[in-house]
Amino acid sequence: MSESGSTVPNNLEAFWMPFTANRQFKSEPRLFVAAKDMHYVMADGRKVLDATAGLWCVNAGHCRPRITEAIRQQAGELDYAPAFQMGHPKAFELAARLAAIAPADLDHVFFTNSGSESVDTALKIALAYHRAKGEGTHTRLIGRERAYHGVNFGGMSVGGIVGNRKMFGTLLSGVDHMRHTHDPARNSFTRGELEHGADLAEDLTRLIALHDASTIAAVIVEPVSGSTGVLPPPKGYLKRLRDICDQHGILLIFDEVITGYGRVGAAFAAERFGVVPDIMVTAKGLTNGVIPMGAVFVRGSIYDAFMQGPENLIEFAHGYTYSGNPIAAAAGLATLETYREEGLFERARSIEALWADALHSLKGAPKVVDIRTIGLIGAVELEPIPGAPAKRAFSAFLKALEKGLLIRTTGDIIAFSPPLIVTEGQIGEIVDILSDVLADID
Ligand SMILES: Cc1ncc(COP(=O)(O)O)c(C=O)c1O
């Protein structure tokens, strides 16, 4: 609240909003002032059902008491501890708890403050790992078209969303991209992994033939692409990437910033799809989105490769002032405890079919050209208005908000990722409102 007691600020100009149409927003502001469980409250008092877990991050729902209390307590006990050459117990405890829920030997954790920092950290680990092993020619990074890996220079370079890349010059050199896996002619109205497209993993073989494996450090993919509009993997695709990487001494990185922490009905997509990467990038759901934090998991053999040379020397010249910050660590511990206590990862899996049935019931609704679901993620793709890409979905976003539903759009795709506590009734509400919205927009 401002000094006047109003919840509405009277000057919106100074804040340059991220990934936002600033002028449109400032002419018709949309302000959240409170949240609880599945709902936001807007400045005019209206309740809005959150079908996007904030920005794919509030997996346990809003303002959960255990997490709020842990943050409150930690802030009064140890607010900050230097992250370099000093430590505090909760960062170690959180890393150990994370290692315990991660698949296989992904048992060492490097803390960051966001998904973007986690991606860049993973890429740096991959490059430095090969150098530490005496394989310094492995410097090339391979991403994929349509990928989103955050907005820092490494992530942008391996990313494949043209609108996020074209404004920023030449980006990192020595990066190449595999073809994306979106193939609506072969896969449409899909549930779970796609029937067709495992063959697209062979595109990595093409790039290896072009560049030679000895020049490639790592391949990074989202197990399910999120921000580009929800693209589940074709059956067998991730396993094939794993095999090709193994065959050629290339590290495989999974960007699980969206898929981690229960979103696909398992702790991580690596577990759900039965494919273990060498490095796993996470953030968002790690702290339920409440405090910025990211975590990069690496296999023991990668950590060990760095633990060489004189013991008084820093092994990896990388880190952030807030790596493993005490309040973030406390939030992370309380979040993991909430997930465990309420069985939220299992819950996501158990309501996946219901979620898919509900969203797929929109097949045949006006303007809908495709629907894709996996875990508690979904996408409803709309036919674009000719000559006005993204306009129809943005109208749907505004109309849905008016009707009390928060959705997210990317291009003409509506993406859903409700908190894992969503009830059957609320799933019905999401679909009913969306159905009204589709009937209402041009
Ligand atoms: C797959 C993926 N990687 C990285 C990021 C970047 O995360 P952040 O916005 O926390 O930097 C995102 C954000 O949506 C993401 O979806």
TrEMBL record:
PROSITE patterns in UniProt: AA_TRANSFER_CLASS_3
Pfam family, any one: Aminotran_3
Swiss-Prot/TrEMBL keywords: Aminotransferase, Pyridoxal phosphate, Pyruvate, Transferase
CDD domains attached to this UniProt entry: OAT_like
Cofactor names: pyridoxal 5'-phosphate
InterPro entries: Aminotrans_3, Aminotrans_3_PPA_site, PyrdxlP-dep_Trfase, PyrdxlP-dep_Trfase_major, PyrdxlP-dep_Trfase_small
SUPFAM superfamilies documented for this protein: PLP-dependent transferases (SSF53383)
UniProt record, GO biological process: biotin biosynthetic process
Signal sequence, renumbered to the chain: none
A single MF term (Gene Ontology): adenosylmethionine-8-amino-7-oxononanoate transaminase activity
Record-stated family: Belongs to the class-III pyridoxal-phosphate-dependent aminotransferase family.
Protein name according to UniProt: Beta-alanine--pyruvate transaminase
